[in-house]
Amino acid sequence: MKRFEENAGGVAKSSPLVGRSAEPTIFELSSPGRSASSFRTTGITPINPEENLPKGLLRDEPLELPEVSERDLVGHYTRLASRQYSVDLGAYPLGSCTMKYNPKFADYVASMSGLSDVHPYSPAALTQGWLELIADAEEYLCEVTGMAAATFQPAAGAAGELTGLLIIGAYQRQVGSKARKIIIPDSAHGTNPASVTLGGFEVVTVPSDSRGLVDTAELAKVLDSDIAGMMMTNPNTLGLFEIEIAEIAAMVHEVGGLMYYDGANLNAVLGVSRPGDMGFDIVHSNLHKTFATPHGGGGPGSGPVAVTERLAPFLPGPRPRRVTGTDGCDTLEWFVPECSIGRVHSNHGNTVVVARALAYMLYNGSDGMRRVSDIAVLNANWLRKAISSSYEVPFGNLCMHEFVASAASIRKKTGAKALDIAKSLLGEGFHAPTVYFPLVVEEALMLEPTETESPQTLQALADALLKIASIAENEGSAPLQMQPTSTPVRRLDEAGAARHPILSYRPESS
Amino acid sequence: MGSFVPHTDPEIDAMLEYLELGSLEALYGEIPERLKLDGPLKLAKGVSEVDTLARMSELAAANTPVGKDLVCFAGGGAYDHDLSTAAMALGSRPEFVTSYTPYQPEVAQGVLQALFEFQSLVCRISGLDLSNASLYDGGSALVEAVNLAASATKRQRVVLSQALNPSFREMVKTFAKGTGHQIVEAPLKGTVTDLDAMDLTDAAAICIGFPNYLGEVEDLPRLRSMCDASGALMVVVYDPVSISVLRTPGELGADIAVAEGQSLGLPLSFGGPYLGLFSAKTEFTRLVPGRLVGRTVDLDHKTAYVSTLRTREQDIRREKASSNVCTNQTLMAVQASIYLSWLGKSGFRELGQRCHSATRYLAGLLTQIEGVEVLGHSYVREFPIRLPKDADQVISEMVSEGFLAGIAIGAGFEGTAVEGSLLVTATEKRTKAEIDGFVDSLRKVLGK
């Protein structure tokens, strides 16, 4: 009997479930001549490109793409999926990421005919529903944030930040200011300083004080006419509400700066307190955090930017607006704001993500959104207290939707690091918290349970964290350094990956 | 009203009691009273799932989707292709949809390996050895290419072909207000870039389409030698489907190649979420924006994948980072990989040939209409036509005939030979009967 080549097509069996074995790449599964695709009957006679295009630009051989059957394809990606943690599977207490449950009805919305199959360059008369959808989402977002107008073009939070900074630049130029500096707290997300640089500004960092809040005395020292604005989250990255925010905003406004709100932590204050009322001028929201659109393993996100009335003329265009026709009927049209900074997306942004978010906002309404924050904050405080016997929380008595614990004393006593605790939690069946961030807390473990995890799940999570601390206490760090052992792969050689990067499959690299 | 909060009232009471708090309101004890809302948000109260979906359906019904009643001949970077049911089903698996960025590789091998395969596929299509794990869209990929070129060459001047997508050009100019790059446009000659009329002196890059926005292939071999003479990087904005019949940007000398990846199995979705493809020569590895997934081994020496070369990224380099990208379009990258693997080697070739055949068949019929002039020459799957009537008017009248006729070439092409023309495409989805019907209707609308 001639044996068939081992890898071709992949072997349809549940090896990841029973043996934790690696899955070959789709290229290794190829069997020459195999194919899954089929094409519709069109009645069109094939035309050879050689008749119409310069020979020197045409390829001779087809590109080397995988050659698999549909069954091979389904097997491969199903086996990959079984090696992946997700919100649908279990809790994801990643601080600052707001990994809440993503409603299934939004998946249905995303695939609706009339939304998913509309061409972006269709005339506005054919896309009135889309314009209205974006206008509705704008209304909701503006009410939640206390702003006057918004753009949905930014495709993610970082894109929103840069959009906001370009608006600050355009505003400052308009008022004749040459201010070049943006203040950010030392606890800020990494995207903030990177966005500041790309926005054409210099970063000025202000330290946190002993309460974990912006040190207003230090802030006063850096304020001068060269300050174009300040970027903050509130609650901040430690999960604490910046109680002096109104004073801070007044100080920055006093020197001509604008206040930028990074909406990463908006889930804490829905229907409770609004960035606009705190004194902010520009607010970006992460629809993939606060408004429950799925994160897709790292995108697509959506980072709409909302602004005050004063800044609306600077927003990217086109934006939708309602107009009353001569017949008295309302229609919607696209317009470009008068001082627009220009487009920040090829089309209108990640619009289907906006549709998911609008569905979530309609479903929750004013009462449901308040409930979201109430329970998000309740869950974080409960978890914080439940693990406080083993994990110190350096700042504050009450937290908002998240908190930052420190493994510093565990490390000192036992040698176990925050990373070992995170990896051990994977072994217990939970996703790990965010570690080593923010930088202002030693051995940081940043936990955000979100409102969609039940008290029972929180209890199991707390039990797992306490068990890990007690193992460290009783047996030292060694058992934790071995973790995880039950996951599809164990700890990786990350240094080797960076030293000798293999970033694509090549036959010779296997 | 519905809710995704699982807590019962007794459970909430028990939690508050554990926290020694009298009410949920007490959770916000730290917030100054004057910063608290004095009443509920001025929004409707929550509704049921069914009511939510009814409203969303109402909005959807107010749009005219492409399909039987609006047969699509519009492209411009967003193409109406047939989709694969298997690819859609696999790409909708909750493990891919509801996971976070793969920061914990031990439990994220599914997404990481899928991204590694995506990078590998994009390397093959771009013909370059290094591809990242996606950017937001074609325009953002071009913006990042411009930034990389400026960093790598330490030059500030960037030349954009006017034959690029006008939205992409506008984005480059928007972001240049922050970086300070000087953006100049190389003019058109007919439907291609006028290589003789542009000045690459001290240019960080020349950015050119292949095929360009007007569907025409550009003379990349000649441009390569011009780049060699001036030191400018050659940034090629390509159409991935056309690469099924054309040589890759890498083979033709590109230093950086970027693309809009929507045509690789993603629905039209009114323009997003789409997929930015980004590839570069390996000498630029340390300057590449976004995530890179690499292959390594675990403690048991088993093959595994991990986000790597992370020291390039914003969360580590902070204000010294050359890109601020964090969240990208991972799900779209996974979906495009599945679609490409479904197409496979022979299917990808056939897709391009079918698009070419349909487009050429359409062009052949259009040239027979009196007063209509096909402006394209060497094109794969899209071309502009000059009409004896206003293009927007034609588009509007063709809607009543059941067609989305194309894209009016206007903003960004003022004063050029193609201003006022109509950009049309026919994908593999268009049948002979649809194309014949389109041409008949166009005759009617033009009164020919």
Structure description:
Helix content of chain A is about 35%, strand content about 10%. In chain A, about 60% of the residues are buried. Chain A contains 15 helices and twelve strands. By secondary structure, chain A is of the alpha/beta class. The model of chain A has no long low-confidence stretch (mean pLDDT about 95). Chain B has a seven-stranded mixed sheet, sandwiched between helices. Chain B has about 450 residues and is an alpha/beta fold. Chain B has two domains: about 120 residues, Aspartate Aminotransferase, domain 1; about 250 residues, Aspartate Aminotransferase, domain 2. Helices cover about 35% and strands about 15% of the residues of chain B. In chain B, helix 7 links the parallel strand 3 and strand 4.
Give a brief outline of the structure.
Chain A has helices at 15-19, 70-81, 104-110, 128-145, 157-174, 191-198, 216-222, 245-254, 275-278, 351-386, 408-414, 418-427, 455-475, 478-481, 494-499, and strands spanning 149-151, 181-185, 202-206, 227-232, 258-263, 282-285, 305-307, 319-324, 330-335, 403-406, 434-435, 444-447. Chain A is of the alpha/beta class and 510 residues long.
Distance between the termini of chain B: 59 Å
Gyration radius of chain A, in Å: 26 Å
Number of domains of chain B: 2
> Total number of β-strand segments of chain A?
12
Seen as an oligomer or otherwise, the chain set is: heterodimer
Helix content bin of chain A: 25-40%
By CATH, the superfamily of the largest domain in chain B comes out as Type I PLP-dependent aspartate aminotransferase-like (Major domain)
The top-level CATH class of the largest domain in chain B is: Alpha Beta
What characteristics describe this protein?
heterodimer; A: 510 residues; alpha/beta; Aspartate Aminotransferase, domain 2; Aspartate Aminotransferase, domain 1; 2 domains; three-stranded antiparallel sheet; 34% helix; globular; B: 448 residues; seven-stranded mixed sheet; four-stranded antiparallel sheet; 35% helix
